[in-house]
Design brief:
CATH topology of the largest domain: Nucleotidyltransferase, domain 5
Strand order of the largest sheet: 3-2-1-4-5
Strand content: 15-25%
CATH class of the largest domain: Alpha Beta
Order of helices and strands: EEEHEHEHEEEHHHEHHEH
CATH superfamily of the largest domain: ATPase, nucleotide binding domain
CATH architecture of the largest domain: 2-Layer Sandwich
Distance between the termini: 15 Å
Number of helices: 9
Number of domains: 2
Largest sheet: 5 strands, mixed
Shape: globular
Bound molecules: adenosine-5'-diphosphate, zinc ion
Length: about 290
């Protein structure tokens, strides 16, 4: 039996299951401060005989195995989580190997093995929610360099009618600053769900996401692009992306039929947690 945690800014999804992505039991725990959240996480896993645990975490996180702070959450503004030694604490409490990566890398791994990119050795998973982030499987492996990629903070060309300043605390009007859920709310003065009938909102959203996808396609050439996160519940954004992306690429690269190429997660809300089961499996193999 393997354990999995999808650690998000608002909730932790904890699950036990197996390496085929099958989930036996799953619970949600609110993300408050580590001293409250982590004991509940540990208590859940202690009910089972788990052999390893995988964590797909919000970030930024330290994924560099050679680093002295490997396994820590690094520069989050979330109270109590900055510099939290996530891997170390769980290893100590549960005494099993711990796999650790970003939430979006875990989701990409889950989708490549059992979801919309099943059978492919390459895919990109992007979440458009409270923030924007992306994970990538490249030649069958999770993309990692000095650290994990941070594809949500790229710069995009402004929509001519967009005068919103941007919400990213680091860059102002980067992609996340212009197109994540909180930026939509701020710009238009209402929650995403309340803006369903405002076509211009979702057209602009697709305008930005299409630009991001253009960059990702030109740099990584993924075999499948999966778009998840709360904002992508608006089907209109997909339509807008399908409209703008060909205009931007202007025939330079040949892509599959866009509605087959740029899709929703095949695993739905479980992409991250299923991917985390695979991170657990990898951690077990490394230790075995
Ligand atoms: P998180 O990123 O915290 O894991 P979500 O992926 O659910 O969570 O993203 C939350 C963001 O998505 C919020 O800003 C919310 O307003 C937005 N959102 C959620 N559902 C919808 C929807 N149906 N339409 C538009 N925006 C939505
Ligand atoms: Zn930014």
């Amino acid at each position: 039996m393997l354990g999995a945690i999808e650690a998000g800014g608002t909730k932790f999804v904890c699950a036990v299951g197996d390496e085929t992505g099958g989930i036996v039991e799953r619970i949600q725990i609110p993300t408050t401060v580590p001293s409250e959240t982590i004991p509940q996480v540990v208590a859940f896993f202690r009910k089972f005989q788990i052999e390893a645990i995988g964590i797909g975490s919000f970030g930024p996180i330290d994924v560099n195995l050679d680093s002295t702070t490997y396994g820590n959450i690094t520069s989050t503004p979330k109270l109590g989580w900055k510099d939290y030694p996530f891997v170390q604490e769980l290893r100590k409490a549960l005494e099993v190997p711990v796999g650790f990566n970003t939430d979006v890398n875990a989701a990409a791994l889950g989708e490549a093995n059992f979801g919309a990119a099943k059978g492919l050795d390459s895919c990109l998973y992007i979440t458009v929610g409270t923030g924007i982030g992306a994970g990538a499987v490249v030649q069958g492996k999770l993309l990692q360099g000095l650290s994990h990629p941070e594809m949500g903070h790229i710069l995009v060309r402004r929509h001519p009618e967009d005068h919103y300043t941007g919400k990213c605390p680091y860059h102002g009007d980067c992609l996340e600053g212009l197109a994540a859920g909180p930026a939509i709310e701020d710009r238009w003065g209402a929650k995403g769900v309340e803006l369903v009938g405002r076509a211009e909102v979702w057209d602009m959203e697709g305008y930005y996401i299409a630009q991001a996808l253009m960059h990702y396609i030109l740099i990584l050439s993924p075999k499948k692009i999966i778009l998840g996160g709360g904002v992508m519940n608006q089907e209109q954004v997909f339509s807008s992306v399908y409209k703008y992306l060909p205009e931007l690429l202007n025939g330079y690269v040949t892509l599959p039929n866009l509605p087959d190429y740029i899709v929703s997660p095949g695993l739905g809300d479980n992409a991250g947690v299923v991917g985390s089961l695979l991170l657990a499996k990898n951690a077990l193999q490394k230790n075995g």
